[in-house]
Amino acid sequence: MPELPEVQTVVADLEPHLIGRRVESVTVDDPLLVRFPQQAEFCRRLEGKEILTVTRRGKYIVIGLEQQLTWMIHLRMTGRLLLNLAKEEKYLRAWFRLDDGTTVWYCDLRRFGDMWAWYPGEETQLGGFIDLGPEPLADDFCSTWLLGRAANRRAPVKTLLLDQRVVAGLGNIYVDEALFLAGIDPRRPASSISAAEAETLCLTIREVLSGAISARGTTFRDYRSGRGTSGEYQQKLNVYGRSGEPCRECGARLASVRIGGRSSVYCPRCQT
DNA sequence: CCGTAGACCTGTGTGC
DNA sequence: TGCACACAGGTCTACG
Q: Is 0.90 surpassed by the pTM of this model?
């Protein structure tokens, strides 16, 4: 569920409570959660270490600890990292006690979320993380890069933008929103995108992500921030979740199609 | 290499 | 009300 703006919000919420704290004890209650190393060794690695940094790369939460240990978390569809466990919260899968009495709670309805605890040199055992493309809000993400990655690709432009090796952090909501603002039909072959369109797309991707970060993310159903609160960006969505409703620009009925197995909403008049 | 369907898991909403 | 089926902010793998 969480895309870049949601992960960014969780990181911002957690950071002040985690920096300088020592992990006192780790409890994992879901055999699917820890991807590397084995669960017992994962817990042993974290316990007793001080947290130095809390950052984000794509949709990964990246926590740096003493002795160059990196604790990495991917929330996938329904993962939550919470500073307070509400009474009604279900699906608790793990918890992390810190030396000041704080507990970080990990909840995950669908159990797709993953965690890793790795030292330098173990990168090859981490799956997709090492293949991430540029950060969309950084300077190395530009139309030249996008155009290069789109060349010779017949897959839909939406599929290209969902590929984390092309750009890290976009998901189903923000890709649909960025394509709407750019006036580009999501079904078009990636290779048909012009230089001018690539330039527009880079701008609208940044615009959508920045706006969503300011709004603390989008909550459709499951997403919660580190504080347990919902996002506000759902009020600003132009197309996602609005199939059949009128386009805010032209009034046309928004269309829905499946692209790469993902439901996709677009305006048949504004997006060509 | 490229592109798409199916799998992973658990729940909610919809239509008959 | 019950049941079956589609669908859900993600991403791997297997296969043609």
A: yes
